[in-house]
Write a structure and sequence with these properties.
CATH superfamily of the largest domain in chain A: Jelly Rolls
CATH superfamily of chain B: 2,3-Dihydroxybiphenyl 1,2-Dioxygenase, domain 1
Oligomer: heterodimer
Strand order of the largest sheet of chain A: 1-2-9-4-7-10
Radius of gyration of chain A: 19 Å
CATH topology of chain B: 2,3-Dihydroxybiphenyl 1,2-Dioxygenase, domain 1
Structural class of chain A: alpha+beta
CATH class of the largest domain in chain A: Mainly Beta
Structural class of chain B: alpha/beta
Number of strands of chain B: 8
Helix content of chain A: 40-55%
Largest sheet of chain B: 4 strands, mixed
Strand content of chain A: 15-25%
Order of helices and strands of chain B: EHEEEEHEEE
Chain lengths: 289, 123
């Protein structure tokens, strides 16, 4: 279903099937999702691709182009938060003692938030449930803006929870004394992660990954494992398996074709890895729907 | 064997029936003597074959209970119940098993509205 809903407080919700090239500047802080296929965003020199398992943050004023490059129709969904709504949310959370956004615990959140947030994050946890509920209700014609804004408020809570988990909790794991070094290393590791998210189906070498992240290969391997408790290769395999799962569920492509589409070389190793991770073979998983 | 009746004690049956029917959207089912010398009212819940039995307890001898109400969308039901006049003890908040919010009925029984969420692999 296609709609562009502007609420009285200027929050905007967009849903639609995209099949074109789009060039824009974001007027407000936005969260972008896709519910099928994938959408590629160009921001400066960075190429960021979002799938159903990830979402993208765009800051106010960011100039971007987005293109759809998917064999299946791409169902986009986006929320833009009005400045005042966003600021009210941040102020209300700052006043709470037991909040996940406790700025006494994370005093550097304000300083680095803007620099960090414009990247790809995993679409998971409570954000997944709340965005799905919101999309469902608006698709069915929900008019009650109080309820819609309640969902939007919770989407922000959920986003900042993910931001906290993905940025600050992981920065704490890095073995550096200086906070600023931890933050800088994590910023570069996030570049590596977004590169893996966006190029998962190509043959990625460690050299090119390290170059994109502005780290040496040794440094990348050591710090990536410290922060994320896995190697870049393990992270890449995890993305490929999740996207293969999505294709098995939502398309009729033969398994062998999916193996190639997500970047695996060998069907037998794909089947073994899939079964290890999800405790079911790809064919049995597909037949369960 | 299955659970069919959930007892809820009150010192004002009429007020308690109004809460379940007008605020919670359940259905008045009738009066029935389940226990000797006890006035009781049946309320049909949204689950088939699961009834609430409102029991008179003017002296508050039995204390008050705690009932967990399951929902598939906590924010939506929280909003609708609030609009229907239910007073919540807290706003929806995140618990290990999902999203929940608590409220009381006029007799002091406590309810947890909970949306259970499977966080392992929702996709």
């Amino acid at each position: 279903m296609e709609y562009l809903r502007t609420l009285r407080n200027n929050n905007v919700i967009y849903s639609g099937t995209r099949n074109n090239f789009n060039q824009q500047t974001t007027s407000d802080f936005s969260i972008r999702f896709v519910f099928s296929g994938n959408e590629r965003y160009s921001i400066g020199k960075r190429q960021l691709s979002i799938h159903t398992d990830s979402f993208l943050i765009l800051n106010k004023g960011t100039h971007y182009t987005s293109t759809v490059e998917s064999a299946i129709p791409v169902q986009s969904f986006g929320i833009s938060f009005d400045d005042k709504f966003l600021q009210d949310f941040k102020n209300s959370w700052r006043l709470k003692d037991d909040t996940l956004l406790n700025l006494n615990t994370y005093p550097f959140i304000n300083r680095y938030e803007h620099e960090f947030d414009e990247t790809i994050y995993p679409f998971k946890g409570d954000l997944f449930f709340n965005v799905n509920h919101l999309k469902h209700h608006i698709g069915r014609g929900l008019q009650d803006e109080l309820l819609i804004n309640e969902y939007l408020h919770h989407c922000l809570i959920n986003y900042f929870q993910i931001f906290n988990e993905e940025i600050f909790q992981k920065a704490q794991r890095l073995n550096f004394l200086s906070k600023s070094t931890k933050i800088e290393i994590l910023r570069r590791l996030n570049l590596a992660k977004e590169y893996l998210y966006s190029n998962y189906n190509t043959n990625i070498s460690l050299d090119e990954l390290a170059e994109y992240a502005c780290l040496s290969v040794t440094h990348l391997l050591r710090t990536f494992r410290q922060a994320f408790h896995q190697t870049p290769h393990q992270f890449l395999v995890q993305i490929r398996l999740q996207r293969a799962k999505d294709l098995l569920k939502n398309t009729d492509y033969p398994v062998n074709e999916i193996v190639n589409m997500v970047g695996f070389d060998c069907p037998s190793s794909f089947i073994r890895l899939f079964k290890d991770r999800f405790q079911v073979t790809p064919m049995k998983y597909r037949l369960s729907f | 064997m299955k659970i069919k009746y959930i007892p809820v004690f009150t010192d004002d049956i009429e007020k308690q029936v109004a809460f379940f029917v007008e605020n919670m959207g359940f259905e008045f089912y009738g009066k029935k003597s389940l226990l000797p010398d006890q006035e009781s009212v049946l309320i049909r819940t949204n689950s088939p074959d699961l009834f609430i039995v409102i029991l008179m307890d003017a002296d508050k001898e039995f204390g008050r209970g705690r009932i967990i109400v399951n929902t598939h969308d906590c924010l939506n039901d929280y909003h609708n119940l609030k609009m229907a006049g239910v007073v919540f003890h807290n706003e929806p908040h995140y618990l290990p098993m999902g999203l929940g919010a608590e409220f009381y009925d006029p007799s002091g029984n406590q309810y947890l509205l909970i949306e259970e969420r499977s966080y392992n692999n929702p996709v």
